[in-house]
Specification:
By secondary structure, the protein is α/β, with parallel strands linked by helices. It has two domains: about 220 residues, Spore Coat Polysaccharide Biosynthesis Protein SpsA, Chain A (Alpha-Beta Complex), CATH 3.90.550; about 110 residues, no CATH class. A hairpin with a 5-residue loop joins strand 9 and strand 10. The longest helix has 22 residues. It is globular. The two termini are about 35 Å apart.
Length: about 350
């Protein structure tokens, strides 16, 4: 059932339609940032009575629980053990009533007009199942350090219609705080597999986009907070074992996406993208093995890497990984990856300084 509220305007008695929007905020040990995230929702220009805020505390061990109590009945609070972000999102969906579903990471923030702009797009484009927008970078203390994250990292912007292939290959950023879904779209892919620990946003946006049309809002309507561990896939991890776990998590997620895509009736449409994903899965699996001290397992996976070659570039990459796997010590392997991450991040953040204001529109 569609959930609307209406206002009568002017002499023409024109109806203004407000969709009920459910905002789901999974959180784990984000006591330093959760208030800023929630307040950015409460500051929305969209009518407060048409916004449902659901915070799922995934077993936080800091002061998150105490902070959530201060909001009383202004938001719905769900507490569970530390079961992971996929489980937290599933719990949020299970109680959400909105026709529009959106997620906000507990350390991210939105511009005040975000929900209004998104709702307008869904109302004007009735066949659209997904709406997304670009985001900025903000530092740990809230200072904007990069006004357009997508542009700085070379992601494609302005893509609309069928976007599944661009999402699969990583040409469109799959940030959870920048994508919004119709309820029917979310229900088609939920519950999320709870064995996915890393790349939940990637799995969700890719699978939601299948058989759906997407619309793009060109304005920067949110910000991704830079803090230890989230500036890149691995720049903030302190040990090779930490990074091994991250690579292993992403390798598993990419394999799960491949498995789900192969179940689609139109799987042939994505055959090339599935091949790309399988190569990515093998790369990450090998890196995970090397960083975790399982070099024999990494060597055992190398034949699968060469089976997936379909271009000269893929061959060069495979040979490079072969050399690194066979000859580079674990500690040096780790240092090379960290250095690469830090250099690329520094280059991105030096490209531009931000002018976006997240307190005023």
């Amino acid at each position: 059932m569609r959930n609307f509220s209406y206002e009568l305007q002017d002499d023409n008695q024109m109806k203004t339609e407000y969709l009920l929007i459910s905002v789901i905020i999974p959180t784990y040990n984000c006591g330093s940032f959760i208030s800023a995230a929630i307040e950015s929702v409460f500051r929305q220009t969209y009518p407060a009575e048409s916004i449902e805020v659901i915070v799922v505390d995934d077993g936080s061990e800091d002061n998150t629980s105490e902070i959530l109590k201060t909001y009383g009945e202004r938001s719905i609070h769900i507490h569970q053990g530390n079961e992971g972000i996929a489980s937290a999102r599933n719990r949020g969906i299970s109680v959400a009533r909105g026709e529009i579903i959106t997620f906000l990471d507990a350390d991210d923030i939105w511009c005040p007009s975000r929900l209004q702009r998104i709702a307008e797009k869904f109302i004007s484009e009735e066949c659209t199942g997904i709406v997304y927008h670009p985001i900025a970078f903000v530092s740990r203390d809230g200072v904007i350090s990069c006004s357009n994250f997508l542009k700085a990292y070379g992601y494609r912007e302005g893509v609309y219609g069928e976007i599944t292939k661009e999402l699969i290959t990583g040409r469109i950023f799959c940030g959870g705080s920048s994508f919004v879904f119709r309820r029917e779209t979310v229900e088609r892919i939920f519950p999320l597999p709870e064995d996915i620990r890393g790349g939940v946003d990637y799995y969700m946006t890719v699978m939601a986009s299948c058989d759906e049309l997407a619309e793009y809002v060109p304005d920067i309507l949110g910000a991704y907070r830079l803090r230890r561990g989230n500036i890149s896939m691995f720049a903030g991890f302190e040990t090779p074992n930490d990074l091994s776990r991250v690579y292993g998590d992403f390798a598993h997620t990419h394999l799960r996406v491949c498995q789900r895509l192969k179940q689609l009736e139109n799987v042939r449409n994505y055959s090339q993208e599935i091949d790309i994903l399988m190569r990515r899965h093998i790369h990450e699996l090998i890196f995970s093995h090397v960083l975790g001290g399982r070099r024999y397992d990494a060597i055992a996976a190398l034949p699968f890497l060469f089976r997936a070659i379909d271009s000269p570039l893929a061959l060069v990459l495979a040979i490079s990984i072969l050399v690194l796997t066979l000859f580079l010590p674990k500690s040096l392997f780790y240092s090379v990856l960290r250095l690469k991450a830090k250099v690329s991040t520094a280059m991105v953040l030096s490209k531009e300084k931000a002018e976006t204001n997240f307190d005023k529109d």
